[in-house]
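mind reviewing these tokens:
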Amino acid sequence: MVEAWRNWSGSVAAAPAERVRPRTEAELADVVRRSRKLRVVGAGHSFMPLCETFGTLISLEHLEGEVELNADKTRVWCPAGWSLAKLTAALWGKGLSLINQGDVNPQALAGAIATGTHGTGLQLGSLSTAARGFRLMLADGSSVKCSASERPDLFEAQRLSLGLLGVATRIEIDVLPAYHLEEKIESHPFEQVAARWEELVAANRHVEFFVFPYGENVALKMLNPAPAEGELKQLNDMDDRLFRMVCDVCTVAPWLTKRLQPLIVGRGVRQRRVGPAYRIFPSDRAVRFEEMEYEMPYASGWAALREAIAWIRKRELPVTFPFEFRAVAGDDIWMSPMNNGPCLSISVHQYAKMPWRDFFEGIEPIFRAHGGRPHWAKRHTLTARDLDGLYPKAAAFRAVRAEHDPGGKFANAHLAGLFGVEGA
């Protein structure tokens, strides 16, 4: 019996006909050739049904390969199936770091790039912007390379592809010499941070904040390059045990949400630590949640956030998780929600044990009205009718997809509907 699959939050399930973990490209090619339908899965951190399939589910975590540096150590070829945790540790061992990354690291490199995963920093783009080349296995089991100079249309589409073009086995990315980061997390009034936002964005390589719907303070997080020193970590008042307890109580007594949230941040938050960048970027995510994220035009992000908070308060909704607010550089990637940026990124969360669907569907029109585009891996209700209005290169992407996978082997039901894949 084939093992069923669930994503990290538990909201997406699949019953694949086959689950495989090839160790060589020859094994992978055989699987790709004989499979009628297939999807590649990593850590399952997508909240949309990107990996859902009744066909073959492939994991690349055991696929052979190592990190290969170019001559001046500014780019590396990496195994696409490695987790960001494994990759960043390996890079550190070679004196290198990623330019930027998000605040979790179990995801596979290929999945993070295919969905436009990003961190924060007004001058720093998503992981997709770091990709410079791909080794891609196509629907017939053959492998090709693509870059800005070799099969450029395939490369442009593959930079954020949702896995619709083939199976990426190796990816070339830009890197930096290894660096340390200092992380500071501080509690400040929401309006004070709003007034100082441009100053904060200019003064910090990375800045973001978390604000609870019923809170007046934010947890302001700043990361900056720093000299190496003995690592220091102070206890954070917003620890996972207290947070999980509050979430569980609010699950059975949702009317207590407004009263209990001050317990989490009311005493203030202060934390400082210094260490290798790959260890400072990620944060623990022990309390599971469901998430929607919209990338907003920079000029409208604050208005959208204020309206979303007011919408929750007016309805007294039991939203136990905070908003996350980040700045992200713009890019030129065809299907990137940061295309023609920069953007302000707003993430909305709900505890995984609590109802989230009606909440997300109710708040989403606020982000759409302010010109936002959703993160492809986070909850959204986009349809095929929406794409051309949001993405000027959507037709070009569909054409590349149809050329390289005319039978829709790599498209599941969700993606077939979204991108108009006939017969899939």
